Amino acid sequence: MKKALKIVGIALLVILAVVVGYVIYVFASFNRIDDNQKLKTEGEADQPVPTGKELTVLSYNIGFGAYSDDYTFFMDGGKESRARSEEAVYENIGGAMDTVQDYKPDFVLIQEIDTDGTRSWHIDERDIVVPAMEETGTFDYVFAQNYDSPYLMYPITSPHGANKAGIMTFSAYNITDALRRSLPIEKGPSKVLDLDRCYSKSRIPTEDGKELVLYNHHLSAYTANVKTAQIQLSRLIKDMQQEYDAGNYCVAGGDFNRDLLGNSPEIFHTEKLDDNWAKPINMDLFTEDITLVAPFDEASMTASCRNPDKPYEKGDFVVTVDGFIISANVEIKTSDVIDTGFRYSDHNPVYMSFVLTP
Fold first, then answer.
1. Quick one: pLDDT at residue 2?
2. How many CA atoms lie within 13 A of 275 on its CB side?
3. Are the beta carbons of 264 and 278 closer than 8 angstroms?
4. Could you give the CA distance from residue 40 to residue 166 in angstroms, rounded to a whole number?
5. Are 36 and 179 in contact (CB under 8 A)?
6. Which parts of the chain register pLDDT below 70?
């Protein structure tokens, strides 16, 4: 009996040591990426942006190539933690980029691009995205790393692993300068789940001697404090206000991880979530000069995101969390969600047509 108890005791001590060691590793490995990081511009676009001409921008969270319409994710109540296979990554991102190519936008903002991830089979997804854009036309492009997460040993049977992910901005017009700006994040243990956050800021000369400042963002989702995302959004809006006050044109797009319509389940007549992560966006954060564009068409109502707790079916919870922000010298023409049926991602792409008005 004593020998058996001793063995059990030793086993428990080993398990405890492993758990404590792992926790120490996770927090010791967490490092924020430097703020004001200059980004490398690649590509061959060499023209300034025209004013007075209708332009288009498309934003798409491609979900690291995992989210087919029947994929479920463990952090949203589902079961899966990785893309099902290397082939699935290529298929999903390839399909997403086919959709982008069909619209031939002037500017493309893409979020959730893995460069080296356990969850995405260590595929550098830029090698799929960039050639697809080059087939569409001549673009300049920049990549900003959003986060570099330590190895997550959960779920135990198929760990989410360690993952590097970022955002990419493409422009049919010459990007002369680009910057990565860090966003505030939570300071407690939840930072390990929500990871680092940023937005990228690309400067593109215009025909009238000013600049179009193009922002790409992916704000926090899994936070313990709802104010975290509000602080992040406030930082972005303040930056845009300063650029507008300097005489520049400003367009931002991406994943807000907030309900841009305020009551999406009621609008789209779908089920509601008991624990709804997509809280209504705080409209009080915007100004007279810097305003929100929430993509929506009453004639063909489509949401931009589903909750991947189960395979998608019509009537499941959906919400519009992807959209744009513009300055007062940018005139919006149209904005809507492109209905892909969530075939390639848990997000549908969104687009906006606009004119720079001197």
1. 66
2. 8
3. yes
4. 14
5. yes
6. 1-31, 188-195, 223-224
Angstrom distance (rounded) from CA 228 to CA 116 = 27
| CB contact at 8 A, 178 and 164 | no
**Rounded distance, CA 72 to CA 89, Å?**
15
Distance CA 300, CA 336 (A): 9
Contact 232, 286 (CB under 8 A): no
Chain centroid to Cα 25, Å, comes to: 27
Residue 12: CB atoms within 10 Å = 10
Residue 58 forms beta bridges with which residues? 108, 351
The residue type at 358: P
* Tokens linked to 219: 């704000």
Beta strand 211-218 with 249-255 is: parallel
Dihedral sign, CA of 259, 262, 263, 264? Answer: negative
3-state secondary structure the chain: CHHHHHHHHHHHHHHHHHHHHHHHHHHHHCCCCCCCEECCCEECCCCCECCCCEEEEEEEECHHHCCCCCCCEHHHCCCECCCCCHHHHHHHHHHHHHHHHHHCCCEEEEEEEEEEEHHHCCCCCHHHHHHHHHHHCCCEEEEEEEEEEEEECCCCCCCCEEEEEEEEEEECCCCCEEEEEECCCCCCCCHHHHCCCEEEEEEEEECCCCEEEEEEEECCCCCCCCHHHHHHHHHHHHHHHHHHHCCCEEEEEEECCCECCCCHHHHHCCCCCCCCCCCECCHHHCCCCEEEECCCCHHHCCCCEECCCCCCCCCCCEECCEEEEEECCEEEEEEEECCCCCCCCCECCEEEEEEECC
By C-alpha distance, which of 157, 179, 154 is closest to 34? 179
Closest CA to 190 of 229, 225, 230: 225
Orientation angle between helical segments 86-103 and 126-136, nearest 10 degrees: 30
| 356 and 49 Cβ atoms separated by less than 8 Å | yes
Q: What is the reported pLDDT for 15?
A: 60
The sign of the dihedral angle between the CA atoms of 142, 357, 351, 275 is positive
